[in-house]
Design brief:
The complex is a heterotrimer of chains A (269), B (296) and C (453). Chain A contains 14 helices and no strands. With 269 residues, chain A is an all-alpha fold. Chain A starts with a helix and ends with a helix. Chain B has a single domain, classed as Orthogonal Bundle (MetI-like fold). In chain B, strand 1 and strand 2 form a beta hairpin. In chain C, helix 19 runs antiparallel to helix 20. The longest helix of chain C is centred in the first third of the chain and has 28 residues. In chain C, 54% of the residues are buried. Classes of the chains: A mainly alpha (269), B mainly alpha (296), C alpha/beta (453). Chains in contact: A-B, A-C, B-C. At the A-B interface, helix 1, helix 4, helix 5, helix 6 and helix 8 of A face helix 1, helix 2, helix 4, helix 5 and helix 6 of B. Chain B: It holds the Pfam family BPD_transp_1.
Chain lengths: 269, 296, 453
Amino acid sequence: MKKYLHYLLLIVLAVIILAPFLYALVVSFESAEETLAFPPVLLPAHLATDSYSKALATAPLLSFIVNSFVVSLLVTAGQIITCSLAAYAFAFLKFPCKKILFILFLSTMMIPAESIIIPNYFTVRSLDWLNSYQGLSIPFMASAFGTFLLRQYFQTLPKEIYEAARMDGCGRLRFFLTMVLPLSKPALATLAVYAFLTTYNQYMWPLLITSSDNMRTVQIGLAMLQWDQGISWNTTMAGIVIVSLPTILLLILGQKQLVKGLTAGSTKG
Amino acid sequence: MIAQTKNAFGDSKQALLFLLPSLLLFAVFTFYPLFASIKLSLYNTDLMGQASTFAGFQHYVDMFSSPQFFQSLLVTLLFTLYTVIPGILLALFLACTVNRQLKGIAIFRTIFAFPLSIAVAGASMIFMMMFNPSSGICNYFLQLFHLQAVFWLSDPKWALISIAIINIWRSVGFNTIVLLSGLQTIPEQIYESARIDGAVSWRQFIDITLPLLSPTLFFVFIVSVINSLQTFGEINILTQGGPVDATNVIVYSIYREAFFNTNFSYASAESIILFFMILLLTLLEFRFLEKRVFYK
Amino acid sequence: MKKHFILGKVFTLIFMLIILLSVAGCGTKQEAAGNGKEPTKIVFWYAVGGKVGEATKTLVDQFNSTHPDIKVEAVFQGDYDSAINKLKQAIPSKSTPNVMQVYDIGTRFMIDSKAVVPVQKWIDKENFDMSSYEKNILAYYTVDNQLYSMPFNTSTPILYYNKTMFKEAGLDPENPPKTFEEVAADAQKLTEKDASGKVTRPGMALAIYGWFFEQFLAEQNSLYADNGNGRDAMATSAAFNSPEGKRVLDWWSGMVKDGSAVNMGRKTADTMKAFVSGQTAMTIDSTGVLGDIMDGVNGKFEVGTGFMPHPAGASNGGVIIGGASLWMMAGHSDAEEKATWEFIKYMTAAKQQAFWHIKTGYFPVTTAAYDDEDLKKYEAQYPQFKIAIDQLHNTPVNRSTQGGLLGVFTQARQEIESAIEHVLDGQASSEDALQKASDTVNEAISRYNASVK
């Protein structure tokens, strides 16, 4: 009985969380007239799919999705490397000014992105990286957020494994690669999902530094659709669904990985 | 004693190597622009936003004598208040409900993480449609229950709350994943021994779960505060700081001044102040909260 | 030794990644070697999306296929504001496009950027016949007797009303209100309340949009800025804090206070939706959304259109055109400039403007477009549009209807919107709100003027 009540609770919560997106999905299949009707149409008379073809015709969404994928993968790989290295230092190593350096790291999160975007534009320009994958990805390959996330996770790892490793005469880097990283799969998966999605969702930076359709990313495509917002919600919502599909898929796949990592971690712990 | 000191410095070379990739990237793409901003805040700018004549601290003086700035400050703090604590409590609740070994639990975990996969722009547009004052679905449901329609985004009393709702929705997915992964590191044996001692479940939660979860909670708290202080996308798309400045948070004001009002120096001054404010706040959080965090 | 080896590997990996990326980047930048017969390439930045963006792309494609010697690359740059911001980075780094679409209120900034070529240069050079272009539209973009940019997408606001509701309320459906006073009186008659006196259907929905305020001033032949709306000389202060400005706010807030008009915020999309779904009887919106309104209504009720209202007794006023124009940027070769001019001429020629009008609802900028057969069919389908054309032609060209020129117009518009919000919310009187807005704008103007020099 208690178990069924718990399922009921889960289902109610799931519906609440999903509601906005489900509604968007419904609207994307409505006709233009239905989107403007009151009371709002919750079940379209018939599935109108022309909003999807319209969305795809308005912006080259598919090629933008490919670009976004490449950039997001690069950033994710970069962040996994830089963040896990730095987090290891903060969690396990002793060195002077550690606290200050950590705060210095964290402080990079506190600088409003809107205020550093212009100087960065000029930096990237002088590196001749405008309109390129490296210009889109390298500035974001370090992340204080990721470092912080991993450091917190590393600190929950049992201290004994570190002591044991020291006793074995295991080198720091080997310890890092063979012990810390495998044990931290859930945190690494979280970081990967997060890094990927935040990069995928960037708008201002790609708009500023790219100026040809073959380097453009997906949120710019969404902005092209946004123009008609309010007039044809169905096209806008279709665009949102198309643009979100890859990330939703990734989340489902990533989450599986995440859960696997999680259970592995807990049985060992 | 001597051995200890030696030990304290023993790791520094290696530490430097581990930190180097991040430090290099930060130096070029974060600290250099930060210094450029500091410089810009001390100058006047030309039409294109390039530094022209030296202004000293004039822009800072202007800022601190502007009631608008303090209004923005207030709105920013209110927004943090509306989003951080409710957002974390909600995520904690969700994480606890899926921290069980039940059949199909992975599906619910994915669903609870779902909002993470929707971009700010997409989420804002979906909520814009739902919040439509005359025919949006939110007001339709209120009407079904014979409640007064709410002008979600155009009523100064509601606008900030509406933006907060969107913000909480957007961040709840990530917070839930992180808290869940924290919960999962708590070994089942600890609960078992507590059960043998006859501890009731809410006592278990307070005495065992919360302390063991504290590093994760601490992380989520710090990050939520920073993110909330920097919320921009929803406001830019939905309210543009209005109505009656009700959603004019500092980051939006920076954007407005820099990109619309061709007032780059003032915007730089604002961002420097915001930077130091968040830094101070985070230092305080570390000073007073991290002590309470229980690391194994 | 071993650990260094692994560490080294990690760094090599990062390093290689960077190298790889740089190489990949170079590949995309390489341009095909010219063989002398290459078409002249020009870059066009545009800032409209949705169906308007689609129509723009179609026109560019048609141009490219009919002009083999020119290749136009059309690049979307976000909305108007993002596009201008991008231009601000492009000018100092000398990477401006050849031609760019800029919104009406960016005119002063474009002139002051000193990075543009007035299209007048090419009009004079070719003795190009401009007589068929709408003079009310040209007047906006003419500064110091030079046509700086070529009008492209142009719209004005009009009154939309629900004829069916007019009939039900006992009003003449063929006679929309013309004055502020008539609008207020009709709105009251069109307002429905329940037994407890709560408004269930307001007579009018009016979005807080600075553009409308500017129109209401021009309707009274009143200026937005000094020095002839910034057209005799650079504006030095705002002029909207006037009895005319106050009249607009008093009228507006009066209707909101008695419930006959509803304040739905700044988005015209929201008021439009209310109108289309039959939750209000009147609204004001751009001519550009006429087609969308008709599609949304889809025969559920009869849609009427009328002139923008003005206070009783106001004379010699009219509407200001809005929209965007095409700017030719400086610093490109003569051959490119010539190609750009060909492109600009093409985009604003009769046939293209007729297509443009049908697809987007913007005015044709040239009267020659009205002879187009497709356009005639369109006019027959949407007789409501005739009002918009009449309104434009009824507008005398003077300093107030030419529209204000301000380098800080985006900010001024935002300040006005904030002022209207304060008044409608009962937080400030019309006078105080306008005073505050004008103080802020004046400060911004002096800062702007100092930065131009």
